[in-house]
Amino acid sequence: MLKGKKILITGSSSGIGEACAEYFSKKGAELVLVSRNKEKLLELSKGLPDKSHIYAYDLLDLQGIKNIFKFCKEEGIILDGMVHCAGMLAECPIKSNQLNLLEEAMQLHCFSFVELGKFFSSRLYSNEGASIVAISSVSSISCDKGMGPYSASKAALNAIVKTMAKEFATRKIRVNAILPAGVDTPMAAHKREIMGVSDENAADGQPLGLITPEAIASLACYLLSSEARFLTGAEIPVSAGLYY
């Protein structure tokens, strides 16, 4: 499905990003793996069946995002796709608002995506008919208590996806968002451990259970492929039956 395609994945050292790397590689893609953790990137890259490139970078540093694309060009890579998986937990009641948490969530989930899209859209760095996928969240719609920074930053991400889809259509670049409910990632598992919540209780409200990262990777793979060539500007919920 992705044979010969060159795909950039942010947040690729764990969770959904790592699952995407493993899934896309099995489908024949050549990958550019981006994450803050160089050691994890190296470990991941060694275990992939196909060629991959690593670039250790903290997306909170918005000014240097262009260097990711310069790296791609230096490696002879013109991109066919990008998946923005980089994310963080950002929970705080409004009455206890922490500006630094809100700012970091917006920078990582939304502002960095804008910068990534800006450079990706250039003919210098991507092919005509390429595809971009943003990993958002159903929290952008449900807006549960205590989730203000996370929900707001993901809702802003959704808005940018729709804007990008319209602006990038002149190059036939498609832009879509996936909105998962609870996914069984290491980040989520760490949160459950801190809160003393079992896996069973964590899936309360999701009759189909916790979502596997591989399920999200599979959907992202479809959106990157030519089979989804008429799909753009979409916000696709993966709810596992969650009512929101």
Q: The CATH topology, please?
A: Rossmann fold
| Strand order in space, largest sheet | 3-2-1-4-5-6-7
Amount of beta strand: 15-25%
Number of E-type strands: 7
Helix content: 40-55%
Question: Overall pLDDT, averaged?
Answer: 92
CATH architecture: 3-Layer(aba) Sandwich
Count of helices? Answer: 9
For the record, give the distance between the C-alpha atoms at the N and C termini, rounded to a whole number.
33 Å
CATH hierarchy class name: Alpha Beta
Highlighted features:
244 residues; alpha/beta; Rossmann fold; 7-stranded parallel beta sheet; 9 helices; globular
What is this structure, in a nutshell?
By secondary structure, the protein is of the alpha/beta class.
Characterization of the model:
- This protein has 244 residues and is α/β, with parallel strands linked by helices.
- The protein has one domain (6-238): Rossmann fold (3-Layer(aba) Sandwich).
- The chain has helices at 15-26, 38-46, 66-74, 99-120, 139-142, 148-168, 186-195, 199-202, 213-224, and strands at residues 6-10, 30-35, 52-56, 79-84, 126-135, 174-180, 235-238.
- It has a 7-stranded parallel sheet with strand order 3-2-1-4-5-6-7, sandwiched between helices.
- Helix 1 (15-26) links the parallel strand 1 (6-10) and strand 2 (30-35).
- The protein is globular and about 50 Å long.
- The protein starts with 5 loop residues before the first strand and ends in a 6-residue tail after the last strand.
- The mean pLDDT is 92.
